[in-house]
Here is the input.
Amino acid sequence: MNEKEGLIVGRNAVLQALESGRTIDSVTVAEGQRGGQAAKIIQICKDRKIPLKFADSRRLDKLCNGAVHQGVAAFAAAHEYADLDDIFDLAASRGESPFIVICDGLEDPHNLGAVLRTAEAAGVHGVIIPKRNSVTLNYTVAKTSAGAIEYVPVVKVTNIATLIDTLKERGVWVFGADMDGTSWNELDFKGSIAIVIGSEGKGLGKLVREKCDFIASLPMKGKINSLNASVAAGILMFEAAKQRN
Here is the structure.
């Protein structure tokens, strides 16, 4: 296993990691591998809803940097994921209203790491990411977070739009960061809130935007019409932190 990257290679090593209950972000199996240990690995992934990918041997060779992978490789998370209740429990333990950040499909681990670092500094109680089409808690995220990954609960959910409905049922107001909304410094971020940050290239998904109670916009005075996702997230987090103090 390459500890730096969280890469586990080989059928037995991957199977042991899965059976130990270790948090696995994804498993890649060579096309045509269906019997023996490979079949058991595939079934465990399905049972635990671990993202499962199939690839040809050439792609696996490249993924594993030439290591003998026997047709199976996995990426372990750099930290355990939390449950949604953990976020609410942390807020309650501090005597505060929940303050949540939702990342709707960030793909750059440096951005997620920066969001976690800023979230910890701003007093955010937890960060939520989707299970698919998103960067996970890999080792680059951990390094970029500068230790914040140890203190900010991260929850992985199947569907962000459904998650927003759940938060609303629990009394949380949801603010999406996007263009053509209300200026960021004219919104009330006090109380139970969640701030949704879209992906680097596409921004908020259409359904996710529709689910938000408010759209928070950052007026752009230059020639560039958007900010880096983690920078935009940081501005909104600290505006909320200022109002909540």
